[in-house]
Specification:
The chain is of the alpha/beta class and 498 residues long. The protein has 15 helices and 22 strands. The protein has two domains: 253 residues, Aldehyde Dehydrogenase, Chain A, domain 1 (3-Layer(aba) Sandwich); 184 residues, Aldehyde Dehydrogenase, Chain A, domain 2, CATH 3.40.309. 38% of the residues lie in helices and 22% in strands. Strand 8, helix 6 and strand 9 form a beta-alpha-beta unit. It binds nicotinamide-adenine-dinucleotide.
Protein backbone atom coordinates (compact mmCIF):
# COMPACT_ATOMS: atom_id res chain seq x y z
CA UNK A 1 0.00 0.00 0.00
CA UNK A 2 1.41 3.37 -1.01
CA UNK A 3 1.76 5.82 1.85
CA UNK A 4 3.31 8.62 -0.08
CA UNK A 5 1.17 11.47 1.20
CA UNK A 6 2.45 11.35 4.76
CA UNK A 7 6.10 10.82 3.88
CA UNK A 8 8.03 13.75 5.28
CA UNK A 9 6.46 17.05 6.18
CA UNK A 10 6.34 18.56 2.72
CA UNK A 11 2.81 18.61 1.35
CA UNK A 12 2.48 17.64 -2.27
CA UNK A 13 -0.23 17.91 -4.86
CA UNK A 14 -2.06 14.79 -6.02
CA UNK A 15 -2.42 14.79 -9.79
CA UNK A 16 -3.64 11.86 -11.87
CA UNK A 17 -2.83 9.35 -9.13
CA UNK A 18 0.67 10.67 -8.36
CA UNK A 19 2.05 12.74 -5.50
CA UNK A 20 3.77 15.61 -7.26
CA UNK A 21 6.01 18.21 -5.62
CA UNK A 22 4.91 21.72 -6.45
CA UNK A 23 7.14 23.72 -8.79
CA UNK A 24 6.44 26.85 -6.76
CA UNK A 25 9.13 28.26 -4.49
CA UNK A 26 6.66 29.90 -2.12
CA UNK A 27 6.24 27.90 1.06
CA UNK A 28 4.65 28.43 4.46
CA UNK A 29 5.30 26.42 7.59
CA UNK A 30 2.33 24.99 9.44
CA UNK A 31 3.15 24.87 13.13
CA UNK A 32 1.25 23.00 15.81
CA UNK A 33 -1.03 25.69 17.31
CA UNK A 34 -0.57 24.09 20.75
CA UNK A 35 3.21 24.03 20.43
CA UNK A 36 4.59 26.59 18.00
CA UNK A 37 8.06 25.06 18.14
CA UNK A 38 6.81 22.02 16.23
CA UNK A 39 6.62 22.35 12.45
CA UNK A 40 3.88 19.93 11.36
CA UNK A 41 4.21 20.53 7.65
CA UNK A 42 5.75 22.69 5.00
CA UNK A 43 3.10 23.87 2.63
CA UNK A 44 4.01 24.91 -0.88
CA UNK A 45 1.69 27.45 -2.39
CA UNK A 46 1.01 25.99 -5.82
CA UNK A 47 0.56 28.23 -8.82
CA UNK A 48 -2.64 28.66 -10.81
CA UNK A 49 -0.96 26.67 -13.57
CA UNK A 50 -0.54 23.70 -11.22
CA UNK A 51 -4.20 23.99 -10.25
CA UNK A 52 -5.03 23.84 -13.95
CA UNK A 53 -2.95 20.61 -14.18
CA UNK A 54 -5.25 19.02 -11.59
CA UNK A 55 -8.32 20.16 -13.53
CA UNK A 56 -6.87 18.64 -16.74
CA UNK A 57 -6.29 15.33 -14.93
CA UNK A 58 -9.86 15.34 -13.60
CA UNK A 59 -11.23 16.13 -17.03
CA UNK A 60 -9.26 13.33 -18.67
CA UNK A 61 -10.48 10.80 -16.06
CA UNK A 62 -14.16 11.73 -16.38
CA UNK A 63 -15.26 9.65 -19.42
CA UNK A 64 -13.95 6.42 -17.91
CA UNK A 65 -15.24 7.13 -14.39
CA UNK A 66 -18.75 8.07 -15.45
CA UNK A 67 -18.95 4.73 -17.29
CA UNK A 68 -18.17 2.72 -14.13
CA UNK A 69 -21.53 1.48 -12.75
CA UNK A 70 -22.61 3.52 -9.75
CA UNK A 71 -22.80 0.50 -7.36
CA UNK A 72 -19.15 -0.29 -8.24
CA UNK A 73 -18.20 3.34 -7.53
CA UNK A 74 -19.98 2.97 -4.19
CA UNK A 75 -18.04 -0.20 -3.30
CA UNK A 76 -14.79 1.79 -3.56
CA UNK A 77 -16.18 4.18 -0.94
CA UNK A 78 -17.06 1.20 1.26
CA UNK A 79 -13.42 0.11 1.07
CA UNK A 80 -12.33 3.67 1.90
CA UNK A 81 -14.55 3.53 5.01
CA UNK A 82 -12.74 0.38 6.17
CA UNK A 83 -9.29 1.87 5.49
CA UNK A 84 -10.19 5.07 7.31
CA UNK A 85 -11.41 3.11 10.31
CA UNK A 86 -8.13 1.17 10.36
CA UNK A 87 -6.13 4.41 10.30
CA UNK A 88 -8.36 6.39 12.68
CA UNK A 89 -5.76 6.86 15.42
CA UNK A 90 -3.10 8.07 12.99
CA UNK A 91 -5.57 10.51 11.42
CA UNK A 92 -6.78 11.78 14.79
CA UNK A 93 -3.25 12.40 16.11
CA UNK A 94 -2.23 14.29 13.00
CA UNK A 95 -5.44 16.33 13.15
CA UNK A 96 -4.77 17.30 16.77
CA UNK A 97 -1.21 18.37 15.92
CA UNK A 98 -2.16 20.23 12.78
CA UNK A 99 -5.55 21.78 13.66
CA UNK A 100 -5.45 21.76 17.46
CA UNK A 101 -8.73 20.09 18.53
CA UNK A 102 -8.34 17.58 21.36
CA UNK A 103 -7.70 13.95 20.47
CA UNK A 104 -11.16 12.80 21.58
CA UNK A 105 -12.87 15.29 19.25
CA UNK A 106 -10.45 14.49 16.43
CA UNK A 107 -11.28 10.80 16.77
CA UNK A 108 -14.99 11.66 16.79
CA UNK A 109 -14.53 13.53 13.52
CA UNK A 110 -12.75 10.58 11.90
CA UNK A 111 -15.48 8.15 13.01
CA UNK A 112 -18.13 10.47 11.66
CA UNK A 113 -16.27 10.58 8.33
CA UNK A 114 -16.27 6.76 8.28
CA UNK A 115 -20.08 6.85 8.73
CA UNK A 116 -20.39 9.34 5.83
CA UNK A 117 -18.31 7.08 3.58
CA UNK A 118 -20.45 4.08 4.54
CA UNK A 119 -23.66 5.96 3.81
CA UNK A 120 -22.40 7.40 0.51
CA UNK A 121 -21.20 3.92 -0.55
CA UNK A 122 -24.85 2.84 -0.46
CA UNK A 123 -25.88 5.85 -2.52
CA UNK A 124 -24.24 4.03 -5.45
CA UNK A 125 -27.23 1.68 -5.43
CA UNK A 126 -29.76 4.45 -4.86
CA UNK A 127 -29.02 6.95 -7.65
CA UNK A 128 -32.62 6.87 -8.64
CA UNK A 129 -34.86 8.89 -10.93
CA UNK A 130 -38.63 8.94 -11.30
CA UNK A 131 -40.97 7.15 -13.66
CA UNK A 132 -44.08 9.17 -14.36
CA UNK A 133 -47.25 8.69 -16.39
CA UNK A 134 -47.13 10.33 -19.80
CA UNK A 135 -49.86 12.58 -21.15
CA UNK A 136 -49.67 10.56 -24.36
CA UNK A 137 -50.74 6.96 -24.96
CA UNK A 138 -47.94 4.41 -25.44
CA UNK A 139 -45.29 6.80 -24.24
CA UNK A 140 -42.88 6.15 -21.41
CA UNK A 141 -41.41 9.09 -19.48
CA UNK A 142 -38.81 9.00 -16.74
CA UNK A 143 -35.82 10.86 -15.30
CA UNK A 144 -32.20 9.85 -14.76
CA UNK A 145 -29.40 11.46 -12.79
CA UNK A 146 -26.12 12.09 -14.51
CA UNK A 147 -22.76 13.41 -13.35
CA UNK A 148 -21.72 16.93 -14.33
CA UNK A 149 -18.00 16.44 -15.02
CA UNK A 150 -15.22 18.11 -13.04
CA UNK A 151 -16.26 19.61 -9.70
CA UNK A 152 -14.14 21.81 -7.44
CA UNK A 153 -14.28 21.40 -3.67
CA UNK A 154 -12.84 24.18 -1.51
CA UNK A 155 -12.67 23.38 2.19
CA UNK A 156 -11.86 25.07 5.54
CA UNK A 157 -9.53 23.95 8.32
CA UNK A 158 -12.03 23.28 11.10
CA UNK A 159 -13.27 19.84 9.95
CA UNK A 160 -10.33 18.85 7.76
CA UNK A 161 -11.42 15.22 7.34
CA UNK A 162 -15.23 15.33 7.47
CA UNK A 163 -15.80 18.25 5.11
CA UNK A 164 -13.60 16.96 2.25
CA UNK A 165 -15.27 13.54 2.75
CA UNK A 166 -18.82 14.88 2.74
CA UNK A 167 -18.14 16.72 -0.51
CA UNK A 168 -15.92 14.23 -2.37
CA UNK A 169 -17.93 11.07 -1.53
CA UNK A 170 -21.26 12.17 -3.06
CA UNK A 171 -19.43 13.83 -5.96
CA UNK A 172 -17.59 10.69 -7.01
CA UNK A 173 -20.35 8.19 -6.26
CA UNK A 174 -22.45 10.23 -8.69
CA UNK A 175 -19.73 9.80 -11.33
CA UNK A 176 -17.99 13.19 -11.24
CA UNK A 177 -14.26 13.75 -10.97
CA UNK A 178 -12.93 16.11 -8.33
CA UNK A 179 -10.27 18.67 -7.53
CA UNK A 180 -9.90 19.33 -3.80
CA UNK A 181 -8.40 22.65 -2.64
CA UNK A 182 -8.06 22.25 1.13
CA UNK A 183 -7.13 24.92 3.64
CA UNK A 184 -3.36 25.40 3.85
CA UNK A 185 -3.67 25.16 7.67
CA UNK A 186 -4.66 21.50 7.38
CA UNK A 187 -3.08 20.36 4.13
CA UNK A 188 -1.31 17.35 5.61
CA UNK A 189 -4.43 15.73 7.04
CA UNK A 190 -6.33 16.42 3.80
CA UNK A 191 -3.57 14.57 1.96
CA UNK A 192 -4.23 11.51 4.14
CA UNK A 193 -7.91 11.60 3.17
CA UNK A 194 -6.96 11.65 -0.52
CA UNK A 195 -4.43 8.88 0.06
CA UNK A 196 -7.09 6.67 1.69
CA UNK A 197 -9.44 7.18 -1.25
CA UNK A 198 -6.66 6.30 -3.67
CA UNK A 199 -5.64 3.21 -1.66
CA UNK A 200 -9.29 2.12 -1.64
CA UNK A 201 -9.25 1.98 -5.44
CA UNK A 202 -10.38 5.40 -6.66
CA UNK A 203 -8.74 5.45 -10.11
CA UNK A 204 -6.05 7.95 -11.11
CA UNK A 205 -7.45 11.35 -11.99
CA UNK A 206 -10.81 10.86 -10.27
CA UNK A 207 -9.77 12.71 -7.10
CA UNK A 208 -6.98 15.28 -7.38
CA UNK A 209 -5.70 17.78 -4.86
CA UNK A 210 -3.99 21.13 -5.23
CA UNK A 211 -2.47 22.82 -2.22
CA UNK A 212 -2.24 26.56 -2.43
CA UNK A 213 -3.67 29.90 -1.47
CA UNK A 214 -7.37 30.53 -1.81
CA UNK A 215 -6.80 33.37 -4.21
CA UNK A 216 -4.46 31.60 -6.60
CA UNK A 217 -5.24 27.85 -6.43
CA UNK A 218 -8.89 28.38 -5.41
CA UNK A 219 -9.24 31.20 -7.92
CA UNK A 220 -8.03 28.91 -10.73
CA UNK A 221 -10.89 26.50 -9.93
CA UNK A 222 -13.40 29.34 -9.99
CA UNK A 223 -12.20 30.66 -13.31
CA UNK A 224 -11.69 27.46 -15.27
CA UNK A 225 -14.47 26.66 -17.76
CA UNK A 226 -14.02 22.89 -17.29
CA UNK A 227 -15.03 23.11 -13.62
CA UNK A 228 -18.79 22.75 -13.76
CA UNK A 229 -19.58 23.18 -10.07
CA UNK A 230 -17.97 24.46 -6.89
CA UNK A 231 -18.80 23.11 -3.45
CA UNK A 232 -17.40 25.51 -0.86
CA UNK A 233 -17.39 25.60 2.93
CA UNK A 234 -15.84 28.52 4.77
CA UNK A 235 -16.29 32.14 5.73
CA UNK A 236 -19.03 34.44 4.44
CA UNK A 237 -16.59 36.86 2.84
CA UNK A 238 -15.03 34.15 0.68
CA UNK A 239 -18.36 32.37 0.10
CA UNK A 240 -19.96 35.56 -1.24
CA UNK A 241 -17.03 36.00 -3.64
CA UNK A 242 -17.29 32.38 -4.81
CA UNK A 243 -21.05 32.61 -5.27
CA UNK A 244 -20.86 35.81 -7.31
CA UNK A 245 -17.93 34.76 -9.49
CA UNK A 246 -19.59 31.38 -9.98
CA UNK A 247 -22.76 33.18 -11.09
CA UNK A 248 -20.82 35.27 -13.61
CA UNK A 249 -19.47 32.09 -15.16
CA UNK A 250 -22.77 30.20 -14.77
CA UNK A 251 -21.23 27.58 -12.51
CA UNK A 252 -23.39 25.68 -10.07
CA UNK A 253 -22.32 26.75 -6.55
CA UNK A 254 -22.99 25.47 -3.09
CA UNK A 255 -21.63 27.66 -0.27
CA UNK A 256 -21.92 26.70 3.40
CA UNK A 257 -20.72 29.51 5.63
CA UNK A 258 -20.89 30.98 9.13
CA UNK A 259 -23.21 30.45 12.05
CA UNK A 260 -24.31 32.18 15.27
CA UNK A 261 -26.20 29.34 16.81
CA UNK A 262 -28.59 29.89 19.72
CA UNK A 263 -29.36 27.48 22.53
CA UNK A 264 -32.68 28.55 24.02
CA UNK A 265 -33.43 27.62 27.64
CA UNK A 266 -36.97 27.94 28.97
CA UNK A 267 -37.98 28.09 32.64
CA UNK A 268 -39.34 24.51 32.68
CA UNK A 269 -36.19 22.99 31.14
CA UNK A 270 -33.96 20.43 32.75
CA UNK A 271 -31.25 22.96 33.64
CA UNK A 272 -28.52 20.39 34.22
CA UNK A 273 -28.98 19.03 30.70
CA UNK A 274 -29.05 22.52 29.23
CA UNK A 275 -25.82 23.44 31.05
CA UNK A 276 -24.12 20.31 29.78
CA UNK A 277 -25.20 21.05 26.21
CA UNK A 278 -24.16 24.71 26.33
CA UNK A 279 -20.78 23.86 27.84
CA UNK A 280 -19.97 21.30 25.18
CA UNK A 281 -21.54 23.32 22.37
CA UNK A 282 -19.69 26.52 23.23
CA UNK A 283 -16.25 25.25 24.18
CA UNK A 284 -15.58 21.86 22.56
CA UNK A 285 -13.19 22.26 19.63
CA UNK A 286 -12.42 25.74 21.07
CA UNK A 287 -15.74 27.03 19.72
CA UNK A 288 -14.37 26.56 16.20
CA UNK A 289 -17.37 24.73 14.82
CA UNK A 290 -19.87 26.23 12.44
CA UNK A 291 -22.56 24.70 14.69
CA UNK A 292 -20.98 25.92 17.97
CA UNK A 293 -23.31 27.35 20.61
CA UNK A 294 -22.30 30.99 20.60
CA UNK A 295 -25.48 32.35 22.20
CA UNK A 296 -27.53 31.13 25.12
CA UNK A 297 -30.96 32.77 25.05
CA UNK A 298 -32.50 32.16 28.44
CA UNK A 299 -35.66 33.06 30.32
CA UNK A 300 -34.83 35.49 33.11
CA UNK A 301 -36.53 33.23 35.69
CA UNK A 302 -33.82 30.54 35.42
CA UNK A 303 -30.84 32.59 34.19
CA UNK A 304 -29.00 32.92 37.52
CA UNK A 305 -29.30 29.21 38.29
CA UNK A 306 -28.09 28.26 34.82
CA UNK A 307 -25.15 30.68 34.92
CA UNK A 308 -23.97 29.66 38.35
CA UNK A 309 -23.86 26.06 37.21
CA UNK A 310 -22.19 26.60 33.81
CA UNK A 311 -19.52 28.88 35.28
CA UNK A 312 -18.58 26.36 37.94
CA UNK A 313 -18.52 23.53 35.35
CA UNK A 314 -16.46 25.58 32.87
CA UNK A 315 -13.89 26.47 35.55
CA UNK A 316 -13.00 22.78 35.75
CA UNK A 317 -12.07 22.61 32.05
CA UNK A 318 -8.36 22.39 31.35
CA UNK A 319 -6.97 24.32 28.38
CA UNK A 320 -3.82 22.99 26.71
CA UNK A 321 -2.32 20.67 24.15
CA UNK A 322 -5.04 18.34 22.85
CA UNK A 323 -2.68 15.35 22.85
CA UNK A 324 -2.75 15.46 26.66
CA UNK A 325 -5.72 13.27 27.73
CA UNK A 326 -6.47 15.57 30.68
CA UNK A 327 -7.01 18.57 28.41
CA UNK A 328 -10.60 19.55 27.57
CA UNK A 329 -10.00 22.40 25.12
CA UNK A 330 -7.18 23.00 22.66
CA UNK A 331 -5.86 26.23 21.12
CA UNK A 332 -7.20 28.64 18.50
CA UNK A 333 -6.15 27.45 15.06
CA UNK A 334 -3.86 30.39 14.25
CA UNK A 335 -2.75 33.83 15.35
CA UNK A 336 -5.42 35.59 13.34
CA UNK A 337 -8.21 33.60 15.04
CA UNK A 338 -6.52 34.15 18.43
CA UNK A 339 -6.56 37.92 17.88
CA UNK A 340 -10.19 37.83 16.71
CA UNK A 341 -11.14 36.00 19.91
CA UNK A 342 -9.32 38.50 22.14
CA UNK A 343 -10.78 41.45 20.20
CA UNK A 344 -14.32 40.25 20.94
CA UNK A 345 -13.35 39.48 24.52
CA UNK A 346 -12.17 43.11 24.91
CA UNK A 347 -15.43 44.34 23.41
CA UNK A 348 -17.43 42.10 25.73
CA UNK A 349 -15.61 43.47 28.76
CA UNK A 350 -16.88 46.93 27.78
CA UNK A 351 -20.39 46.02 26.68
CA UNK A 352 -21.47 43.06 28.85
CA UNK A 353 -20.90 41.40 32.23
CA UNK A 354 -17.87 39.12 32.30
CA UNK A 355 -18.53 35.93 34.28
CA UNK A 356 -15.56 33.78 33.32
CA UNK A 357 -12.25 34.04 31.45
CA UNK A 358 -11.53 37.31 29.71
CA UNK A 359 -7.80 37.50 30.55
CA UNK A 360 -4.99 36.61 28.17
CA UNK A 361 -3.55 33.22 29.05
CA UNK A 362 0.19 33.31 29.67
CA UNK A 363 2.98 31.33 31.32
CA UNK A 364 4.12 27.74 30.77
CA UNK A 365 2.50 25.97 27.83
CA UNK A 366 0.40 29.07 27.12
CA UNK A 367 3.47 30.98 25.94
CA UNK A 368 4.06 28.40 23.22
CA UNK A 369 0.64 28.21 21.58
CA UNK A 370 -2.47 30.14 20.56
CA UNK A 371 -4.46 29.68 23.75
CA UNK A 372 -7.66 31.49 24.70
CA UNK A 373 -9.61 30.99 27.95
CA UNK A 374 -13.20 29.74 28.13
CA UNK A 375 -15.08 33.03 28.34
CA UNK A 376 -18.70 33.69 29.34
CA UNK A 377 -20.51 37.04 29.12
CA UNK A 378 -23.89 37.68 30.74
CA UNK A 379 -26.37 40.47 29.95
CA UNK A 380 -25.33 40.67 26.33
CA UNK A 381 -27.60 42.88 24.24
CA UNK A 382 -29.27 40.87 21.48
CA UNK A 383 -28.29 43.40 18.82
CA UNK A 384 -24.65 43.87 19.91
CA UNK A 385 -21.70 42.55 17.85
CA UNK A 386 -21.05 39.95 20.55
CA UNK A 387 -24.52 38.48 19.93
CA UNK A 388 -24.59 39.05 16.17
CA UNK A 389 -21.12 38.26 14.76
CA UNK A 390 -19.60 34.84 14.26
CA UNK A 391 -16.57 34.91 16.59
CA UNK A 392 -15.49 31.29 16.02
CA UNK A 393 -13.82 31.06 19.42
CA UNK A 394 -14.59 29.93 22.98
CA UNK A 395 -16.73 32.97 23.80
CA UNK A 396 -20.30 32.38 25.00
CA UNK A 397 -22.78 35.26 25.06
CA UNK A 398 -25.84 34.99 27.27
CA UNK A 399 -28.93 37.00 26.33
CA UNK A 400 -31.69 37.15 28.94
CA UNK A 401 -35.32 37.27 27.76
CA UNK A 402 -38.74 37.65 29.39
CA UNK A 403 -40.57 34.77 27.73
CA UNK A 404 -40.70 32.21 24.93
CA UNK A 405 -41.95 34.72 22.36
CA UNK A 406 -38.99 37.03 22.93
CA UNK A 407 -36.63 34.02 22.95
CA UNK A 408 -37.72 32.99 19.44
CA UNK A 409 -37.40 36.55 18.16
CA UNK A 410 -33.91 36.92 19.62
CA UNK A 411 -32.86 33.51 18.31
CA UNK A 412 -33.95 34.58 14.82
CA UNK A 413 -32.47 38.08 15.01
CA UNK A 414 -29.12 37.21 13.38
CA UNK A 415 -28.22 37.02 9.71
CA UNK A 416 -27.11 33.39 10.02
CA UNK A 417 -29.27 30.26 10.14
CA UNK A 418 -27.27 27.09 10.65
CA UNK A 419 -28.18 25.30 13.89
CA UNK A 420 -30.31 25.92 16.98
CA UNK A 421 -31.44 24.16 20.09
CA UNK A 422 -34.32 24.41 22.55
CA UNK A 423 -34.42 23.10 26.11
CA UNK A 424 -37.95 22.66 27.43
CA UNK A 425 -40.43 19.98 28.42
CA UNK A 426 -43.39 21.82 26.92
CA UNK A 427 -44.49 19.96 23.79
CA UNK A 428 -46.42 22.90 22.34
CA UNK A 429 -43.36 25.14 22.60
CA UNK A 430 -41.16 22.47 21.03
CA UNK A 431 -43.36 22.30 17.94
CA UNK A 432 -43.81 26.08 17.78
CA UNK A 433 -40.02 26.47 17.91
CA UNK A 434 -39.47 23.84 15.20
CA UNK A 435 -41.98 25.72 13.04
CA UNK A 436 -40.57 29.21 13.58
CA UNK A 437 -36.83 28.89 14.06
CA UNK A 438 -34.95 30.05 10.96
CA UNK A 439 -32.17 27.46 10.90
CA UNK A 440 -31.40 24.52 8.65
CA UNK A 441 -30.85 22.22 11.62
CA UNK A 442 -32.64 22.30 14.96
CA UNK A 443 -32.36 20.24 18.12
CA UNK A 444 -34.83 19.73 20.93
CA UNK A 445 -33.16 18.93 24.24
CA UNK A 446 -29.86 18.18 22.49
CA UNK A 447 -26.81 20.41 21.78
CA UNK A 448 -26.51 22.65 18.70
CA UNK A 449 -23.47 20.67 17.53
CA UNK A 450 -23.39 17.34 15.76
CA UNK A 451 -25.15 15.84 12.80
CA UNK A 452 -25.67 12.36 11.41
CA UNK A 453 -24.30 11.17 8.06
CA UNK A 454 -27.71 10.32 6.63
CA UNK A 455 -29.41 13.64 7.43
CA UNK A 456 -29.07 16.80 5.32
CA UNK A 457 -26.68 19.42 6.69
CA UNK A 458 -26.66 23.13 5.96
CA UNK A 459 -28.12 26.49 6.81
CA UNK A 460 -30.64 29.13 5.84
CA UNK A 461 -30.24 32.91 5.34
CA UNK A 462 -26.60 34.05 5.15
CA UNK A 463 -25.30 30.63 6.24
CA UNK A 464 -26.03 28.64 3.14
CA UNK A 465 -26.73 29.05 -0.54
CA UNK A 466 -27.15 26.18 -2.93
CA UNK A 467 -28.35 22.70 -2.05
CA UNK A 468 -27.85 20.85 1.26
CA UNK A 469 -24.87 18.59 1.95
CA UNK A 470 -24.85 15.07 3.46
CA UNK A 471 -27.77 12.67 3.48
CA UNK A 472 -29.57 11.44 0.39
CA UNK A 473 -30.00 15.00 -0.93
CA UNK A 474 -26.21 15.53 -1.16
CA UNK A 475 -26.13 13.93 -4.61
CA UNK A 476 -28.67 16.46 -5.91
CA UNK A 477 -25.96 19.11 -6.08
CA UNK A 478 -23.56 16.79 -7.89
CA UNK A 479 -25.98 15.54 -10.56
CA UNK A 480 -27.97 16.85 -13.49
CA UNK A 481 -31.47 15.47 -13.97
CA UNK A 482 -32.33 14.38 -17.49
CA UNK A 483 -36.00 13.94 -18.52
CA UNK A 484 -36.48 11.12 -21.01
CA UNK A 485 -39.47 10.69 -23.40
CA UNK A 486 -39.87 7.37 -25.25
CA UNK A 487 -42.63 6.99 -27.81
CA UNK A 488 -43.50 3.36 -28.59
CA UNK A 489 -46.60 4.05 -30.69
CA UNK A 490 -44.61 3.46 -33.88
CA UNK A 491 -46.53 6.34 -35.42
CA UNK A 492 -46.19 10.01 -36.15
CA UNK A 493 -46.83 12.37 -33.25
CA UNK A 494 -50.25 14.01 -33.74
CA UNK A 495 -50.72 17.41 -32.26
CA UNK A 496 -53.70 16.91 -30.00
CA UNK A 497 -55.07 18.64 -27.01
CA UNK A 498 -55.41 16.50 -23.88
P1 LIG B 1 -12.09 30.69 4.68
O1 LIG B 1 -13.27 31.24 3.99
O2 LIG B 1 -11.01 31.62 5.08
O3 LIG B 1 -11.38 29.56 3.78
C1 LIG B 1 -12.10 28.44 3.29
C2 LIG B 1 -11.42 27.94 2.02
O4 LIG B 1 -11.57 28.92 0.99
C3 LIG B 1 -9.91 27.71 2.17
O5 LIG B 1 -9.53 26.55 1.47
C4 LIG B 1 -9.33 28.95 1.52
O6 LIG B 1 -8.02 28.76 1.04
C5 LIG B 1 -10.31 29.18 0.38
N1 LIG B 1 -10.29 30.53 -0.18
C6 LIG B 1 -9.97 31.69 0.44
N2 LIG B 1 -10.06 32.73 -0.43
C7 LIG B 1 -10.46 32.23 -1.61
C8 LIG B 1 -10.72 32.80 -2.89
N3 LIG B 1 -10.60 34.11 -3.13
N4 LIG B 1 -11.12 31.98 -3.90
C9 LIG B 1 -11.27 30.66 -3.70
N5 LIG B 1 -11.01 30.05 -2.51
C10 LIG B 1 -10.62 30.83 -1.47
O7 LIG B 1 -12.66 29.88 5.96
P2 LIG B 1 -11.85 29.16 7.13
O8 LIG B 1 -11.27 30.18 8.03
O9 LIG B 1 -10.97 28.12 6.56
O10 LIG B 1 -13.05 28.39 7.89
C11 LIG B 1 -13.83 28.95 8.90
C12 LIG B 1 -15.21 29.32 8.40
O11 LIG B 1 -15.85 28.17 7.84
C13 LIG B 1 -16.15 29.80 9.48
O12 LIG B 1 -16.84 30.94 9.04
C14 LIG B 1 -17.13 28.64 9.67
O13 LIG B 1 -18.40 28.98 10.15
C15 LIG B 1 -17.20 28.11 8.28
N6 LIG B 1 -17.70 26.74 8.28
C16 LIG B 1 -18.98 26.52 7.85
C17 LIG B 1 -19.51 25.23 7.86
C18 LIG B 1 -20.91 24.98 7.37
O14 LIG B 1 -21.20 23.84 6.99
N7 LIG B 1 -21.78 25.97 7.35
C19 LIG B 1 -18.72 24.16 8.30
C20 LIG B 1 -17.41 24.42 8.75
C21 LIG B 1 -16.91 25.72 8.71
Amino acid sequence: MATTAAQGRICRNFINGEWVASRSTRTVERRNPANLEEVVSVVTLSTAEEARDTIAAARAAFPHWRAVPAPARGRILARAALLMEQRKDELARLMTREEGKILRDALGEVIKSVRILEFMAGEGTRLSGETLPSDLPNNFVYTIRQPMGVVGTITPWNFPVSIPVWKIAPAIVAGNTVVLKPSTYTAQISALVVEILSDAGVPAGVVNMVIGSGKEAGGALLEHPDVRAISFTGSNAVGAHIYSSGAERLKKCQCEMGGKNPLVVLRDANIDLAVEAALYGAFASTGQRCTATSRVVIEEAVADRFLESIVSRAKAWKVGNGLDPDVDMGPAVNEQQLETDYRYIELGRKQARLLLGGERLSGGVYDHGHFVPLTIFDQVAADSPLAQDEIFGPVLSVVRVRDFEEAVNVANSVRYGLSSSLYTNDAAKMFTFIERIETGITHINSPTVGGEAHLPFGGTKATGVGLREMGHVAVDFFTEVKSVYIDFTGGKRESRAY
